[in-house]
Amino acid sequence: MPHAVQPGFSMTESVSAMDRLLTSLRDGKGRGLPPVERWNPPFCGDIDMRIAADGTWFYLGTPIGRPALVKLFSSVLRRDDGAYVLVTPVEKVGITVEDAPFQAVEMAVDGEGEGRSLAFRTQVDDVVSAGPGHAIRFERAAKGGLKPYIHVRHDLWARVTRAVTYDLLALGEVREVNGLPMFGVAAGGVFYPAVPASEIEDGEAE
């Protein structure tokens, strides 16, 4: 089946989008993340790039097999009005994200209780510690379980992988929040409620 090309792009333009992005990004110098929040280039349409729910990046329907390339593109990812875009100094293009753009693949625990430190590493080697500025949130999974996320930067989040989720929930405890006993996790001086404690008692949360 031929790959779908976004309106306004010919197949040739879609194929060359990767080259244009790479050329622009190679012009950047220095260490650390690029200042994408300060860039305001014109929007050049959508390209056939997708981040699957499991964190795999696809281009023209094919997985991007080079981790360094994925890491490069992730460094210029931004969210504008709910849409995900890759931003360079000269252009901005839209991509598709099925769930969260990052995956939290590793967690390190230091300490206990309110003062506990939880550090998460993403699949592209971002490292963040839960707390003010890097919140943990929980969403309901399709079958009634829990999907935790950790805030990475700006409006970008990482979904905690299944294996790490088990370790995270093992740190859970029950605290009263607004008069209601809630099951959640404490880290960085903040308690992050997940579900009412009654659901844990009933075995409804996974």
Automatic annotation (TrEMBL):
Pfam families: DUF1285_C, DUF1285_N. InterPro entries: DUF1285, DUF1285_beta_roll_sf, DUF1285_C, DUF1285_N. Gene3D superfamilies: duf1285 like domain, duf1285 protein. Residues 34-100, 101-193 form the DUF1285 domain. This is DUF1285 domain-containing protein.
